[in-house]
Amino acid sequence: MYHEINQLHYGVAIEREETLFKDKSPYQEVEIFKSKGLGNVLTLDGLMMTTEKDEFFYHEMISHIPLIAHNNPENILVIGGGDGGTVREVLKHKSVKSVEMCEIDGMVIEASKKFLPTIACKLDDPKVRVYVEDAIEFIKNKKNCYDVVLIDSTDPMGPGEGLFTEEFYTNVKNSLREGGIVVPQSESPFANVNEMGKMYKLLRKVFKNVAPYCGPIPTYPGGYWSWAFCSDEVEAPHCHKKVNKQRADEISKLCKLYNTRMQTAVFDVPNFVKEIALGE
Known about the structure:
Blueprint: E1 2-5, E2 11-14, E3 16-24, E4 29-35, E5 40-44, E6 47-51, H1 55-69, E7 75-80, H2 85-90, E8 98-102, H3 106-115, E9 128-131, H4 135-138, E10 146-152, H5 166-174, E11 176-184, H6 193-206, E12 209-216, E13 224-231, H7 245-252, H8 262-265, H9 271-278
Parallel strand pairs: 7-8, 7-10, 8-9, 10-11
Antiparallel strand pairs: 1-2, 3-4, 4-5, 5-6, 12-13
Helix pairs in contact: 5-6
């Protein structure tokens, strides 16, 4: 039995059938096990990362909201995301010409290719270039390169800790082209209140426009997750903003979760989320 207890002292339990892969990289313990009901499950240092059954909740939300909000997303950077799910979703957009993925831990990539093939299925696509590097160093000299940057990181601890700093977010901002958008995952507004609050304070120092959006993820702490829509030129696509309905409709047909109406609805977050993220 796999257990993860969150900061509120409750958690998730998953019946496991067998361990498929377990090893320790220079950065963390990587494990993939076969579960009884959720397919294969990836954990890092014992913390839930993804399951074959519910991975689409996370990967569709981090990818399609910002890409549809951008007028013409062509060059995309994914930071982290070694399981490949975010890259897979990004490539559903016809406008995308190239996707770079910078993942610090090559073991995660190789294990995912072998044991999570439906998630990692696009990592060898001709449009994709994978860098096994520290994103903190990778991004420092990138200027005017990307239309959208997706920070598909672990929690702010261990190898992911350096991805939650003002210097890092500033370097990410500098890597954007005009009209660029950044979306990092921003933790659970229910189970990770302190971490989320600190993160949004940093983001608001760097970007003119910062807006949280939320969605369910059954196996994540609290079952409810958030992402931060960040840009200097683009405001979050609330209901009164124009949305490219044709593009959104095309993507909707390829998704399990995302649909056109969600493009604006996800920004109508609960009051307690506004308080954490925006101090409102």
